[in-house]
């Protein structure tokens, strides 16, 4: 019985991960929508709208749409011994630039925030500005969120399970990544909380 309870628990956590990815992709596309509206004629030609937004955004959106599809395919037809680790193993692989684009995002963000702060001053856009900061914040927090999700799956994965070792490696990779860039994470979080 215990074994079946574990499997059910794993499936629930997998569904939670899928749902959070779906919301995240919606948030990312909202940023692109705001980006499109800011490209309007109001913004002075001299300020390149591009620099309001980290350049890595477009790439991240594409990556996460692909990830969402992969997760949907996997989680919605969850077999008796469902596996998630391989998806994240591929994502965090050195050949894949997924994590590099997050580093680029974290590096570009402070400048973008100060630009937005200076240029988008009209009261009408105050709301847009705080929405943007919240959406930017979600992106800063996404990798740490994956770590939590995968640790949760691992907690309910028996050592004999084919997913166990894969998850272990992914959790390790994400931990190393987050601790390596902890200052960048911290600096951006502080900045966004302060602006909000």
Task: Describe it.
The chain has helices at residues 2-38, 57-76, 85-91, 98-119, 126-155, 164-180, 182-195. The chain has one domain: Dbl Homology Domain, Chain A (Up-down Bundle). Helix content is 75%, strand content 0%. The protein has 196 residues and is mainly α. Pfam families: RhoGEF. InterPro entries: ARHGEF33, DBL_dom_sf, DH_dom. GO terms for molecular function: guanyl-nucleotide exchange factor activity.
**Low-confidence spans: pLDDT under 50, at least 5 residues?**
none
- Domain count, please report it: 1
Tally of DSSP helical segments? 7
* Largest sheet, strands/sense/barrel: none
> Mean of residue pLDDT?
89
Helix percentage range = over 70%
Look at the helices and sheets and give the structural class: mainly alpha
How many strands appear in the DSSP assignment? 0
Within CATH, the superfamily carries the name Dbl homology (DH) domain
What name does CATH use for the topology?
Dbl Homology Domain, Chain A
Please write the string of helix (H) and strand (E) elements: HHHHHHH
Per CATH, the architecture is Up-down Bundle
> For this entry, what is the oligomeric state of its chains?
single chain
N-C termini distance: 48 Å
How would you describe the shape?
A: elongated
Provide the gyration radius in Å.
19 Å
Determine the strand fraction and express it as a percent band. Answer: under 5%
The level-1 CATH class: Mainly Alpha
